[in-house]
Amino acid sequence: MNSGQVSKATGVSQRMIRHYESIGLMPRPDRRDNGYRDYSPASIERLRFIANARDLGFQVDEISVLLGLWDDRTRASSEVKAIALEHAEDLARKAAALEAMRRTLLELAEGCSGDARPDCPILAGLAEPRRRPARQLTEFSGKPKEGV
Known about the structure:
Elements: H1 3-10, H2 14-22, E1 30-31, E2 37-38, H3 41-55, H4 60-71, H5 77-110, H6 121-127
Antiparallel strand pairs: 1-2
């Protein structure tokens, strides 16, 4: 299959396919006589794996580790499970942080009359010093923000 066909079969853009090749997640495919890339069924399966892992929020370095485990038929499934559970915990922390941000925005919006007056409690609230403890403010890495 050429890259256009692979893109249609997997839902991954040709640009992303080339990117995954350039960073080593995908092996570079053989070339046909006409210069087109020629992807094997194994490459398509690997690309689907990468796309599904991305859809679940795994980062490139994590996908690389998962691919290594996938390729290693002697590995224990416990290694894979540990990575999945750690990622699930990270997603839970991110979801909690997003929910806290959403609640804060709703509280600020609730105080705003939304009329023609220039005073705006939302803008005033954004200008206030931070009131929440640092442990509640997390980046998407799940680690406390510096200097909060």
